[in-house]
Amino acid sequence: MKMMPYWYSSFALYHFEGIPPFRAMQLEKGFNVKEEKESNELANLEENPYNEAIKKELKDQYMAGPNLLVAPVFAGESERKVVLPKGKWYDFYTGKYVGNGEVITVNARLDQIPVFVKDGGIVPLMDPMLHAPGTNQSYDLKILYYGESPGHFTLYDDDGISYDYESGHYSWRDINVIKESNGKWKGSISAVGDQKPNNIGKVTWVFMSEQEGQTPLK
């Protein structure tokens, strides 16, 4: 429930633009087998397990929203393999770099589902509630940023209780993270339009790759 802003925005993208909130790995950029060079296709699969992995239909890991790769661990498993698309990926819980276009092995934990964030990924969080914030019910936003590339996320908001969004009573707000000339990361969120819903209170930023090893979800 802490991830309500992320999920709410992801499902809004599905409603307005048809982008599925949960997608097969083959639909993720950097995971397309056609991007592999012919020389790689002819390579010994024992020497190139990633090439073999992306040729198979993966049914036990998937993309969730624009930035997350989820790899559930099933009963009886002490570890599992995860196939990462091309591009840098980071551990959701700690911000630690985990790999780039390769097959990794992760250990099973009872308290965490393995989740990974693409480079430049932004994940907005809030204090847990049992429902979406209602009219004039503000919430504080904690924005997590991962990686080394500029990041962008489009945050959706509406009144949380009615169908007024069908008549345009909703807002999209751009969340951006860039590196300034002094080498420091800076986050910004665009202003809400006139007469548009605005439930966001205080905004705090957590740059996960600078605080590797911490667990901001606790």
Short description:
Helices cover 11% and strands 32% of the residues. By secondary structure, the protein is mainly β. A hairpin with a 3-residue loop joins strand 2 (62-64) and strand 3 (68-70).
Q: What do you see in this structure?
A:
The structure is a single chain. The chain is built from 3 helices and 14 strands. It has 218 residues and is mainly beta. The strands form 4 sheets. It has a 6-stranded antiparallel β-sheet with strand order 1-2-3-8-5-6, with no helix packed on it. The protein has a 3-stranded mixed β-sheet with strand order 9-10-14. A hairpin with a 5-residue loop joins strand 5 (88-91) and strand 6 (97-100). The protein is globular, with a radius of gyration of 19 Å.
How many DSSP E strands? Answer: 14
Secondary-structure element series: HEHHEEEEEEEEEEEEE
* Spans where pLDDT lies below 50 across 5 or more residues: none
Question: How confident is the prediction overall: mean pLDDT?
Answer: 87
